[in-house]
């Protein structure tokens, strides 16, 4: 946590984020711009990406709230875009933001951790009681065409409509990779697809990922050891101490899920389109990675809770 007595304040966080983003964009694009046609916008790509990441870190995921709050910092952001232009450029910069996330990952040694965890969390796209009526309209068609379905989050005893976000995180709480699927896709299927792009890992998962066939294939093709605690009715059981250790280690992803839900509002959708939803999700995941990176640059081992930062 950042406490009031800390020297690092909100303006410092904005500056840190801007410097990292601007340097990364220049390395990625050579010109410092994601789009080189036409005149340069008054609010540069680096500034807009910084606004996005700072806003997501603060929980200002509604653009009107973000732009309103950032008017107090005109010395850092002198050219704030209009709401419509902000939304349009956020969608245009989605790939760039994800590239920034990947570059920041590469700069952290903890991204090389070979002990990881895989799990999922729900991403509803609308309030459940509104779904039947909404599916017959334009917005409903937008979600249907892009694979939104009904799904269940068993741990939360929640039935919802939308998607499921599958996460691969390190033992240090760093999100290595992710995959967005329809809500009714089972964790085992999506998790296997997610892990197929990685090698040489020990991955801890819950009982939804139990499958000897999938575990054997991942071990043979990717040198991935998928570790799960057996169900009670299975013949082969782990020693109690080992089962306790795996369950304890797996709780870390619950911490990350709680951060994404409580601080980054990942289960609250303000997008009107699938492209808009993806843009917002990428911004949230990049902001989460950036917060860990800045923490480590400052020599902190705890979480950078941006909501606690002083405004003076």
Key terms for this structure?
312 residues, 6-stranded mixed sheet, 11 helices, disordered N terminus
Verbal overview:
With 312 residues, the chain is an alpha/beta fold. It contains eleven helices and six strands. A hairpin with a 4-residue loop joins strand 3 (158-170) and strand 4 (175-182). Helix 1 (10-29) packs across helix 5 and helix 2 crosses helix 11 (274-297). The radius of gyration is 21 Å and the shape is globular. Mean pLDDT is 86; it is low at 1-6 and 306-312.
Structure, briefly:
Helices cover 46% and strands 15% of the residues.
Q: What is the strand and helix layout of this fold?
A:
Elements: H1 10-29, H2 45-58, H3 63-70, H4 83-92, H5 94-106, E1 115-124, H6 131-134, H7 138-145, E2 149-153, E3 158-170, E4 175-182, H8 187-195, E5 201-205, H9 212-222, E6 224-228, H10 240-262, H11 274-297
Parallel strand pairs: 1-5, 5-6
Antiparallel strand pairs: 1-3, 2-3, 3-4
Structural class by helix and strand composition: alpha/beta
Order of helices and strands: HHHHHEHHEEEHEHEHH
**Portion of residues within helices:** 40-55%
Low-pLDDT regions: 1-6, 306-312
Strand content: 5-15%
Q: Gap between N and C termini, in Å?
A: 17 Å
The count of helical stretches stands at: 11
In round numbers, the mean pLDDT is: 86
DSSP strand tally: 6
- Main beta sheet, described? 6 strands, mixed
- Please tell me how large the radius of gyration is: 21 Å
